[in-house]
Amino acid sequence: MGAQRTSFEKLQRDRNKKAKQAVKRERRQTGETRIGADGEEVVVELTTEGELSAPELLAQIELIHRQLDEKVIDFDEFEERKADLMARLPID
């Protein structure tokens, strides 16, 4: 009795999963994230210039926290980026 072969559907699911992982990896490396707000997706890029609105600031803080959790950046780089973002807070 031989082993059962993998089905085509399983192979296709595995390929789709790997493709999705590659897209996520590329997005993390380029510093982009997708944020679902009110049912729409917005692409936010990590910027280093100018003043930020509150939603942009929160999105960038979320991005650097996610990058730290996924070990894309180390703690020192995280602290540096966080300090830069906090310095850019609009103070009225």
Can you describe what's shown?
The chain is an alpha+beta fold and 92 residues long. It has one domain (9-87). The chain is 57% helix and 13% strand. The protein contains 3 helices and 2 strands. The protein has helices at 8-30, 54-69, 75-87, and strands at 32-37, 40-45. Strands 1-2 form a two-stranded antiparallel sheet. A hairpin with a 2-residue loop joins strand 1 and strand 2. Helix 2 (54-69) runs antiparallel to helix 3.
Brief characterization of the structure:
With 92 residues, the protein is α+β, with helices and mostly antiparallel strands. Helix content is 57%, strand content 13%. It has a two-stranded antiparallel sheet with strand order 1-2.
Which features would summarize this protein structure in a list?
92 residues; alpha+beta; elongated
Helix content: 55-70%
Terminal CA distance: 76 Å
**How many DSSP E strands?**
2
Structural class computed from helices and strand pairing: alpha+beta
General form: elongated
> What is the overall pLDDT average?
75
Contiguous uncertain segments of 5+ residues? 39-43
Fraction in beta strands:
5-15%
Q: Any idea how many domains?
A: 1
Question: Which series of helices and strands comes N to C?
Answer: HEEHH
